Amino acid sequence: MLKKGSKLYSILTGSCPKCHEESMYFEKNPYKLNTIYKMHENCSHCGLHYEIEPSFFYGAMYVSYAVSIAFGVAFFIITHYFLNTSLAVSFITIVAGLIALMPVVARLSRNIYINIFVHFDAAWKKRS
Q1: Dist. CA 72–CA 65, nearest whole Å
Q2: 3-state class of 31 per DSSP?
Q3: Partners of 25 in beta bridges
Q4: How far apart are CA 36 and CA 107, in angstroms?
């Protein structure tokens, strides 16, 4: 399921969407908040320039909103329906969960956004 060449592999690992050979980020741990958005300019393997145009990753804010909603709905369903908690407890769980997952959501959103525009190219070595 998580093989090189799939979008899901690139999204979940934060690897280059074109070659899947290296991480786009200097630091793999998203919870090191001072380096959460620090990315390499280009892939050292295939040469892909990550910021395709100036302010490219501002579009990831829209993806971040959708991902946050998905996590919030999941938290609500788990706490309210499976654990039978009150609405207040479910709301507190949603807020706490989204705050705790903010760095993960930020990175995941960037990964999803760049993978919308850049596709895996198995033949990138031949053209380099």
Answers
A1: 10
A2: coil
A3: 39
A4: 7
Q: Which residue has the tokens 């070595």?
A: 125
pLDDT at 128 over 70: no
CA–CA dist 97, 114 (Å, integer): 25
The pLDDT of residue 5 is 83
- Tokens in use for 67? 């991902």
Contact between 87 and 41 under an 8 Å Cβ cutoff? The reply is no
Q: Which of 12, 14, 110, 117 is nearest to 62 (CA)?
A: 110
Give the pLDDT confidence score for residue 114 in this predicted structure.
Answer: 95
pTM of the model: 0.89
Does the structure show a pLDDT above 90 at 123?
no
Q: Which contiguous run of DSSP H or E holds residue 61? A: helix 60-76
